[in-house]
Amino acid sequence: xxxxxxxxxxxxxxxxxxxxxxxxxxxxxxxxxxxxxxxxxxxxxxxxxxxxxxxxxxxxxxxxxxxxxxxxxxxxxxxxxxxxxxxxxxxxxxxxxxxxxxxxxxxxxxxxxxxxxxxxxxxxxxxxxxxxxxxxxxxxxxxxxxxxxxxxxxxxxxxxxxxxxxxxxxxxxxxxxxxxxxxxxxxxxxxxxxxxxxxxxxxxxxxxxxxxxxxxxxxxxxxxxxxxxxxxxxxxxxxxxxxxxxxxxxxxxxxxxxxxxxxxxxxxxxxxxxxxxxxxxxxxxxxxxxxxxxxxxxxxxxxxxxxxxxxxxxxxxxxxxxxxxxxxxxxxxxxxxxxxxxxxxxxxxxxxxxxxxxxxxxxxxxxxxxxxxxxxxxxxxxxxxxxxxxxxxxxxxxxxxxxxx
Length: 405
Prior knowledge:
Peroxisomal Thiolase, Chain A, domain 1; 2 domains; globular; alpha/beta
């Protein structure tokens, strides 16, 4: 088995696992006005922003000039996850530790700042760190260097599906013989260019009210809100975790990824197939799933297709469904792993967090969407879904260690 032994969370509504989980259960939102620059004229001015995070408190000063905010989030979350796992990296052979991260935006703020220097002051003013600070793989590289992890590592770019894909690759790496993998996702793109590029896709909600702008599966759903943050996990082979007496939050029991068929092919989207394949990979039936953490795009056509996939797999109202990301916005590569953390906390505490903002779900969806308040119930198995733009789909099955053993 592959078990999860450490969690590191930086979310718009909480720094650290327990603060994030408390906010998720109580409905404390991280959605607010995008106030890092003048947003006059922008079609959407709301986002899930990480506030009260000072990277200088957590990272060496030498790293600050060479890192984008996204990398700072990833580095800090990885450090917290390693600490939470009680992992002494000096006691593990460097080639027995790997890093797998996902990132959808690259170092947006850093690179656009350097571009501005190039255009206005000349190339001699551009930071030498621009050569790597913009790159999607930089988070994997920086975590690897900082913690001496030299095992087989990689970076993935599949937008919102990326975090789950990173965990799937981490499990694959462990099965190939690596003892420990630090895996997850991070994203941040809220400089003027980054924010505008997100709204240009036409999927971001223009509703100015933070309480209603992002309401997945609602009859009045009109788009999502983007967010930033990082969720990094420590994954280990069961034997490794047991040997060092580590606590396991749960098992990564199943994983699958699919790609949507070409438009006009009359074939259904690939999310339902990803869910089915993940359950098969875990060796379980739909009846054994206690909760689904939905992708929850917040767009009627995408919400409808996800609801149809769930109805076909579980039957109408056959499983509780929730979308805590309505409190954070879609964090892209960090979003899937944030949901995995919620799944692990649901297993630990016997509670399903609600979906805030959503008030009226179309009857045709056939969803048992958890609304209003958290639902107390035993949770042993959770299915987590994510869809990246341009057709990426991913699904993971998280199980209690007792259920999986």
